[in-house]
Amino acid sequence: MRTGIIISYNHTAGLGFIKDSNKQRIRFYNEDKTVVFKQFDVVQFDISFVRNSLQAVNVIGVRDKKGNIVSMTTNIN
């Protein structure tokens, strides 16, 4: 599996883009509306040809020891 960061995601359409460690911008489609991704979430995924183009598939959020999805944002209190 590859690792990357969500750079954009439209929850309504289920479409988004991931930037991987090679700085490639890869499109993905999320059919599971119960899974909500946010910008800067860290994810793991596979690459596949879908409708004659490369897309990220099997996208899952990377979780920390507490079970929370890892994000590249910082919380400032």
Polypeptide structure, described:
By secondary structure, the chain is mainly β. It contains no helices and five strands. Strands 3-2-1-4-5 form a five-stranded antiparallel β-sheet, with no helix packed on it. A hairpin with a 4-residue loop joins strand 1 (2-10) and strand 2. It starts with a strand and ends in a 16-residue tail after the last strand. 14% of the residues are buried.
Describe the structure in brief:
The protein has no helices and 5 strands. It has 77 residues and is an all-beta fold.
Identify the overall geometry.
globular
Low-confidence stretches: none
Any idea what the radius of gyration is?
Answer: 12 Å
Mean pLDDT value: 91
Order of helices and strands: EEEEE
N-end to C-end Cα span:
34 Å
Beta strand count: 5
Overall SS class:
mainly beta
Q: Helix fraction?
A: under 10%
The share of residues in extended strands comes to over 45%
Strand order of the largest sheet: 3-2-1-4-5
H/I helix tally: 0
Largest sheet: 5 strands, antiparallel
Per-chain topology:
Elements: E1 2-10, E2 15-20, E3 25-29, E4 42-50, E5 53-61
Antiparallel strand pairs: 1-2, 1-4, 2-3, 4-5
Describe this protein with a few key phrases.
77 residues, mainly beta, 5 strands
